[in-house]
Amino acid sequence: MFGSAVKKVKDLYKWLDKYSDPRTKDFPLVEDPYPVCLIFIMYFIGIWGLLRYMENKKPFKLNKVMIFYNIAMACISLKIFITAVEFSYMLGHKFVCEPYTVSYDQLELKLLNNNWWYYISKIVEFSDTLFFILRKKNSQLSFLHIYHHSSIFFLCWVVMKWFPSGSVVSALILNSFVHVVMYTYYGLSAFGNRVKKYLWWKKYLTAIQIIQFLIAFYIATSNIIYGCNYPFGLKCLGVLYAASYLILFGNFYRKAYQKKLKKQI
Question: Is 148 a known active-site residue?
Fold first, then answer.
């Protein structure tokens, strides 16, 4: 029975593979699904293993590492953001309802390369989870956190393999900009109390993320409403994915606000 199920999955993948984008076929970690699945599984095994390892240990002090990591990720996100905006503008791409096309224009290929770096950055961002566990910040290891890191990596692979251009670039631009803000904040906060007093804008971080997903939801629904030239299945996936984040982040924001009100009473 298990063997039959595996065969059906393989047959389905072979059929889907016929529709993959030929331009990204030779990109590392795109063509072959096995390394991608292995990384995906190892993320969860790593969480389980590290939690057990740290169970009876003191938290690591990683301030210098956190400063370097977060500032580096902010710079990477900024580079990806600027490149995506620059090439999208030069190509005359629309922010909403940009159709998916297989173009070998040099600027399009450079934009694809930038999209690939964004995808690879999602693997590096698994380190966020690693640092939470090593510093014993387990309260931040929420369902939302794990869902975000695991799902965005897998979704980026799907996009890179099948539909790496069009409206997805708008989502990349949004997310990269938000990550510049987020990683800059975390990098500065790692300097300690002498800097934290200048980080009054922390309270707006979750609001910025919710605005991001509202815009992403608008882009995704516009693709369906206006019949944009994009695969229908991916349109629906985009709507559901953006909606899931709106619900999860909205719930997080509501709980944080209620907690703050209780402290004030």
Answer: yes
